[in-house]
Hints:
The protein is of the alpha/beta class.
Amino acid sequence: xxxxxxxxxxxxxxxxxxxxxxxxxxxxxxxxxxxxxxxxxxxxxxxxxxxxxxxxxxxxxxxxxxxxxxxxxxxxxxxxxxxxxxxxxxxxxxxxxxxxxxxxxxxxxxxxxxxxxxxxxxxxxxxxxxxxxxxxxxxxxxxxxxxxxxxxxxxxxxxxxxxxxxxxxxxxxxxxxxxxxxxxxxxxxxxxxxxxxxxxxxxxxxxxxxxxxxxxxxxxxxxxxxxxxxxxxxxxxxxxxxxxxxxxxxxxxxxxxxxxxxxxxxxxxxxxxxxxxxxxxxxxxxxxxxxxxxxxxxxxxxxxxxxxxxxxxxxxxxxxxxxxxxxxxxxxxxxxxxxxxxxxxxxxxxxxxxxxxxxxxxxxxx
Length: 366
Ligand code: M6R
């Protein structure tokens, strides 16, 4: 069932144009100027009373939460806390009927995420699940479900499910903003146009697979890999570092780019590898100046940039370009090179890509 691919992970990476389309298109009918989320019962009246949102999840799904926090706060202007479920569940979090919880889970069975959901329900909060597996425990226990239509994900390392989660988060943040009157119909129509273009843009990133493989071969002997970014890019850098750790077993750390000079920059030495994310354009100049500081200390720099920000090639050793889209949706495109990069490093090092050591696909015990 690998359809000719060497591993499930690579097959799932290449399924992403379809997964993005499947998750977005049914919710964006062209004959209605609205997002249609069938299984969401949260009414405008309840939403208007929500004064705090928690987004709770584990691992890769928790990085969807970081993107969600950024987007919902920016477009809907409600305070959002994004947190890992294993911490959230034991700190007696403050919730009531004016709290909205969004839980994110591919499997729908992750023990800590489920425990967080149950705490929220006990407190009277409304819970929306962004879930991939239909009929899973989280999908049944949440008040509402927004399914990611990614199909079964076999590889332990999440790729297509994460992209589908981002799409679901895009829909949810836009929907909340519209319901609250924070986003006009015209603005929505513009966003919908961009969302419809995303599958093709994902394909454009995937078409660079050979170039990205060559970069994986070039940097395969890196011992310490630093991922940096600001804003949405910081969330993406967390996912990039996790992917490299879990399948390539390389030491990889994500940092908010602005934090480097508060300590981590002391770790940089000749031949450290820095993956610099510069797709969140509003913060481009700031991140580029951090990249320059690291470059000056001897690191090799692999940048991920928007297609027309060509000046980055004067600073970075290598650049992977991704197509331009609306700023809200850059994370999806910027992340895909990181998946391919980690995949080929893992393959090159001879690891079991689909079943990395010590890891299980579904973590049903805490
Ligand atoms: O099934 P879930 O989405 O709840 O799983 C959460 C994490 O265990 C999962 O994302 C894990 O971090 C993956 N191995 C990442 O690739």
